[in-house]
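Handout, section 3.2

Students often ask what a structure token actually looks like in practice. Rather than define it abstractly, here is a full record for Adenylate kinase. The first block is the sequence as you would receive it.
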Amino acid sequence: MTDTTTRLLIIGPPGAGKGTQAAQIAERFGVPAISTGDIFRANIKGGTPLGQQVQAIIESGELVPDSLTNEIVADRLNQADAAAGFLLDGYPRNVEQVHALDGMLDGESLDAVVLLEADVDAVVARLLKRAELEGRADDTEEVIRHRQDIYAEQTAPLVKLFSERGILVTVDGLGTVEEVAARIATGLDAQLSAKAGR
Ligand code: B4P
């Protein structure tokens, strides 16, 4: 990977708006948005062996085993369109996955990690609304709350780790899509220019 590579990650609780914002950030930087959740859902929809393996896990709100998830991400990052950078959405989700990603990047670091913050009740309300529109199998109130618990236990601790690495950009995820996008753009520009000046 070269110095012009842009390696980004967006992290936040289920329903914080990661998928919505990931698409905009990826377009702005001309890199692919890579969502492990989207990869799993596409495989479930297509009835592939991977989809059959993960369907029950995803519908219960549990995490797919690390070995499987790490392998999928490693394959995806090896594809040509990720050579100049990428935006990861939904991965890494626990400490083991952070170590696996560090190995995949071979000593290179992520350039910035966008943390989208949002209040639990607000995100539960968002996802229940999405359930009405899209009917995602893991968007029942019980499973949404379970996904929030897993985020708090396993993913939230990564925030401290990325903060200690000096790459965390914290953004308030409440407001309109445009308001949140503007906050992310400002925060990312500041982080990336500070990193370039180091
Ligand atoms: P994901 O697809 O990553 O799902 P999520 O974290 O629950 O995010 P979600 O898509 O719900 O919400 P988003 O923040 O985009 O993962 C699904 C499952 O896959 C996991 O539970 C797990 O089983 C498995 N999985 C995925 N990655 C894994 C990994 N690394 N390891 C192991 N297992 C893994 O929010 C989107 C919603 O917010 C939309 O409805 C949107 O319309 C709305 N929204 C966005 N911006 C808004 C705004 N400003 N105002 C109002 N609503 C807004």
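Discussion prompt for tutorial groups: The chain has one domain: 6-34+86-197. How would you have guessed this from the sequence alone?
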